[in-house]
Amino acid sequence: MFKFITNAISRALGFTRTESRGTLVLIFIIFIAILLSHYRISILKSKSTIGPDSTALAWINEVQASYDVKEDGEDFDKSVFFPVKKDFAKKETQPKPWKKETEPVEKIIIADLNMASVEDLQKVRGIGPAYSERIVKYRDLLGGFSDTSQLKEVYGLKKETIDELVKHFQVQSSVTPLDINSDSIKVLAKHPYINYDLARVIINYRKVHGDITSAEDLKKIKAIDERTFLRIKPYLK
Fold first, then answer.
1. 226-236 core/surface letters (b: 16 or more CB in 10 A; e: else)
2. How many other β-carbons are positioned within 10 Å of the β-carbon of residue 128?
3. Rounded to an integer, what is the distance from CA 83 to the centroid of its chain?
4. Is 58 helix (H, G, I), strand (E, B) or coil?
5. CA 154, CA 169: separation in Å to the nearest integer?
6. Mean pLDDT for the chain overall
7. What is the pLDDT, as a whole number, of residue 30?
8. How many whole angstroms separate alpha carbon 226 and alpha carbon 158?
9. What pLDDT does 50 receive?
10. C-alpha 141 chain-centroid distance
11. pLDDT at residue 98, as a whole number
12. Which residues of the chain carry a pLDDT beneath 50?
């Protein structure tokens, strides 16, 4: 039978015997493939894992039905080929555990630097007994601070400590002025801005020219430069 069919193909198509055999085998393979595909489709349809209410089965039926030509000639619905949209519930936004409410800032009470005691100054971070006593002693020699910048003149006091100090203390009262026309040379020389030689020059000046009536009179004394004048000026009556 096989030889008969091979000879028939050779006579009909003009193939050699080898080509006829190959053609016959190819036809046989194609036939078997068609049978297997139909068999597989029938098995998939008959499987019980896809129930009549299954979404997948319903989608397959819709696709298959869409290929059938309707009697009224209308186009089939292409939407069946689109995947089914699913609605996902939005997740509730949870507050971040690391986010903390802003804590209230403690209000800083500013006191008068010229009225602060040794104990008051020691409440500031970086101010111990030695520094607090040194600040008060220098303040008394000056007759009071006229400006917080004078804290830089306190021996050993660091800038960071001064910055912390001025957060709590400011100059709120006036200084005790010098009596430039009555104070003795000894009293004048005790002031941090006036040494003994300058005190003697001031005494001699007022003996020759009379009382010093204004701060500008001090500029007439050659021993007093501009920097010294500006430092002494707040302590004159």
1. eebbebbebbb
2. 12
3. 44
4. helix
5. 15
6. 80
7. 87
8. 27
9. 46
10. 48
11. 55
12. 48-50, 69-72, 80
**Gap between the Cα atoms of 60 and 50, Å rounded:** 11
CA 2/CA 110 separation, integer angstroms = 117
Among residues 33, 74, 41, 73, the alpha carbon closest in space to that of 60 is found at 41
Token pair listed for 100: 């903390």
Contact 197, 185 (CB under 8 A): no
Which tokens belong to 85? 């949209």
Which residue in this structure is represented by tokens 């689109």?
82
Question: Are 212 and 222 within 8 A, CB to CB?
Answer: no
Question: Using CA atoms, how far apart are residues 125 and 142, in angstroms rounded to an integer?
Answer: 24
Residues 133-138: contacts with CB within 8 Å, 24+ apart? 138/192
137 Cβ contact list (under 8 Å, min separation 6): none
What distances in angstroms separate CA 32 from CA 27, 44, 64, 97, one per listed residue? 9, 19, 24, 66
Residue pair 170/115 in contact (Cβ under 8 Å)? The answer is no
Query: Hey, what amino acid is at 32?
Result: I
Q: Which residues contact 185 (CB under 8 A, 6 or more apart)?
A: 196, 199, 200, 203
Q: How far is Cα 153 from Cα 192, in angstroms, rounded to an integer?
A: 10
Model pLDDT, residue 38: 77
